[in-house]
């Protein structure tokens, strides 16, 4: 635009550090330049259509309108000192997992890195106003981050950037359904963000039933890619396991899970299944969840049970889909 290069730095700081929501707020730029920028660029790609608060006050879910009229959801969670945002990377999802509401709505489009990061900035801005700040970001909302690899990675880079939000890489987690080529690429590129894998089953047959992508990238290849990640990076990998009654909470599944997790640097995150209207699967009883956790622990496998949050506003894992809960 023929402007001196330091203007780029001013603009960067305004957007990624100060999280301005309109070009008008960038007082370091001349009125004339602001007008030109306003004409050509979108400074706030997300408009809040609706915000829901869980009854216990711990969780909020926002519905954002995107410039093309599509919409996505993000979830903000308060837990002791943690302030975590769960963000979306796509409108819908193409992976069609049997128990996930997002999967059932199909794929609409990828989000840009700006649209992904802006979900975080929305909450960062608010927290900063009250003297607080975000502590964690998880790419576990709508969509499959590794199906939108480039934009998801670039969004994490923005969040981690020293001149931006400067959120530590270990505070950012990306979760994938298990796209093997992208896991290999992620390993090769040596990204520092935490990696979580939606495992959910320890046999090919069951995993294919729950996660159709297993047909393309079988469990055996997925585990090889995960081992490779751990070996190359020296980092722990997280396996997510949504506990479904009489489906993947059986002794057989547990034994097989122990067999391969036992010799890997990993952490298992057990997620009692959240209901979705289209699915006939049921959540494992809390006593069985405890047994599962105990068996893993006894086998020296690090594990935890994910807190169930925001269920009254359909903000739990696998419940995000643009739906009529708002109306
Ligand atoms: N697409 C990515 C990230 C989004 S989902 C992925 O699948 O990994 C975040 C986590 O919630 C995943 O582990 C996913 O399998 C899990 N999940 C999906 N539906 C769920 C449900 N109904 N109950 C509990 N967890 C669910
Ligand atoms: Fe997509 Fe993840 Fe839901 Fe599967 S669990 S449909 S990959 S969002």
What does this structure look like?
With 327 residues, the protein is of the alpha/beta class. It has two domains: 1-43, no CATH class; 45-313, TIM Barrel. It contains ten helices and twelve strands. It has helices spanning 6-17, 31-40, 101-104, 113-129, 149-160, 180-188, 204-210, 219-233, 251-261, 286-298, and strands at residues 47-53, 59-65, 71-79, 82-86, 90-92, 107-110, 136-139, 172-176, 194-198, 237-243, 266-272, 302-305. The strands form two sheets. Strands 1-2-3-4-7-8-9-10-11-12 form a ten-stranded mixed beta sheet. The chain has a two-stranded antiparallel sheet with strand order 5-6. Helix 4 (113-129) packs parallel to helix 5 (149-160) and helix 6 runs parallel beside helix 8. The longest helix is centred in the middle third of the chain and has 17 residues, at 113-129. The chain is globular. The termini are far apart.
List its traits.
binds S-adenosyl-L-homocysteine; 327 residues; TIM Barrel; 34% helix; globular; two-stranded antiparallel sheet; 12 strands; alpha/beta
User: Helical content, roughly?
Assistant: 25-40%
DSSP strand count: 12
* H and E string: HHEEEEEHEHEHEHEHHEHEHE
N-to-C terminal Cα separation, in Å? Answer: 44 Å
Oligomer: single chain
How does the helix and strand content classify structurally? alpha/beta
Largest sheet, strands/sense/barrel: 10 strands, mixed
Strand order of the largest sheet: 1-2-3-4-7-8-9-10-11-12
State the CATH class of the largest domain.
Alpha Beta
The CATH topology of the largest domain corresponds to TIM Barrel
Average pLDDT, all residues: 94
The 3D shape can be described as globular
Bound molecules: S-adenosyl-L-homocysteine, iron/sulfur cluster
pLDDT < 50 runs, ≥5 residues:
none
> Number of helical segments?
10
CATH superfamily of the largest domain: Aldolase class I
How much of the sequence is in beta strands?
A: 15-25%
Number of domains: 2
Query: What gyration radius follows from the Cα positions, in whole Å?
Result: 20 Å
Name of the CATH architecture of the largest domain: Alpha-Beta Barrel
